[in-house]
Amino acid sequence: MTPNPADILRRQRARESAARTYARSFPIVPVRASGMTVEGADGRRYLDCLSGAGTLALGHNHPVVTEAVRRTLDSGAPLHVLDLATPQKDDFTEALFATLAAGFRDRARVHFCGPAGTDAVEAALKLTQTATGRRGLLAFTGGYHGMTAGALAVSGNVAVRAPVPGGAAEVTRLPYPYAYRCPFGVGGERGAQIAAAYTERLLDDPAGGVVPSAAMILEVVQGEGGAVPAPDGWLREMRRITAEREIPLIVDEVQTGVGRTGAFWAVEHSGVEPDVIVMSKAIGGSLPLAVIVYRDDYDGWAPGAHTGTFRGDTLAMAAGAATLRFVAREGLAGRAAAVGARMTSRLDGLRTELPVIGDVRGRGLMIGVELVDPQAAPDGCGARPAAPRLAAAVRAACLDRGLIVELGGRYDATLRLLPPLTITDEEAEVVLDRLSDAIAQVTAQATAGPHLAGRSS
Ligand SMILES: Cc1ncc(COP(=O)(O)O)c(C=O)c1O
């Protein structure tokens, strides 16, 4: 039976909650997928630069993943056993620990969480609050950590936090070094230095309003925040500042992990050793899996302290172990660094021709292209106002051209490219051709017709 895409879209629109997300921006009905190509029920094919919000390190249905799943199914292994010991869990843990830096691995503990990144964030916050006996949390502007209460409280986006009354924890928001829109109006390396100095002074100010901190949580490259990379030196400063005050450092690698930024774990770029790493998305090889890995001296939990029914899905552990080993064996982090650098450089080169591109940034295959109103005056750092309506029009124009690209960042004005690490050179060129063509067309329409550049409709 050939599904009728229009009927499916209509029925799901009518029955699903108002909170439905990606289905709004991408009204397609995927029926087959392989690598970075997704085929819709209408027969159209798309290059997928969203990759399940950074989940699909190997693209869709990679043979390494499908064979691991098939092998496990054929073996008769139980698919669900709560958190009992299984050969699949043992093998996944072996594969995961092999990816950790030696010093960290030797003293690491893993906790299997409910299968979403947000539950692993909750676990990390709870672990450090239990271990330190403190309740305060340090988090960053622009950060995103998930949708459950604790994870939401440490996220920056006011639009998603504001409608939820109350709040689980006392959170101090610190400035993230976002060079293009520097919180101090300075930008560059200097802006990051000021952000670090401000953090240190605030923590030591007895009247600064900061309650004793159970943890600092950060992303090495902010994902939903618009592919904003933090300088390595700033991260080293955060490590020094937290270590000197005995505050555990939680690095949220839910989106940056498994090679995406050009290192297996993004924190490796800086040489920093965190206390807790939060992992999800790619570690399950397309299937739901989330864990925290942390230093053993924080393991002060009582049995059942962070329990849950779906903590370690057998198929996800098999697919995840196969993915972790493949990424390591094939050197895909290095490949992400090389292809990402080429893509970023070509995009950067388009800025003169397409002045709507305000900033091109990222690390490895986590790339952000921030669109701005080229006619508006720049601020003191040279940044022009964000152009979210134009960005939404570019996203739609990309879809028309067979390219799936999602938005993120402040005002949803940043096009985020998260292709699989297996993207070929040819696919990377096609992605950039379609993207630049879409931006050029939308810009031309905006210049000729009704103004698309502003923030409000
Ligand atoms: C850095 C980061 N942390 C946590 C999460 C939450 O993960 P999940 O959507 O699986 O709950 C996300 C999701 O995008 C993320 O990017």
UniProtKB/TrEMBL annotation:
Its cofactor is pyridoxal 5'-phosphate. It is an enzyme of class 2 (transferase). Signal peptide: none annotated. InterPro entries: Aminotrans_3, Aminotrans_3_PPA_site, Dat, PyrdxlP-dep_Trfase, PyrdxlP-dep_Trfase_major, PyrdxlP-dep_Trfase_small. Pathway: Amine and polyamine biosynthesis; ectoine biosynthesis; L-ectoine from L-aspartate 4-semialdehyde: step 1/3. It holds the Pfam family Aminotran_3. Keywords: Aminotransferase, Pyridoxal phosphate, Transferase. GO terms for molecular function: transaminase activity. CDD domains: OAT_like. Gene3D superfamilies: Aspartate Aminotransferase, domain 1, Type I PLP-dependent aspartate aminotransferase-like (Major domain). The keyword Transferase applies. It comes from the Bacteria. Its EC number is 2.6.1.76. Belongs to the class-III pyridoxal-phosphate-dependent aminotransferase family. This is Diaminobutyrate--2-oxoglutarate transaminase.
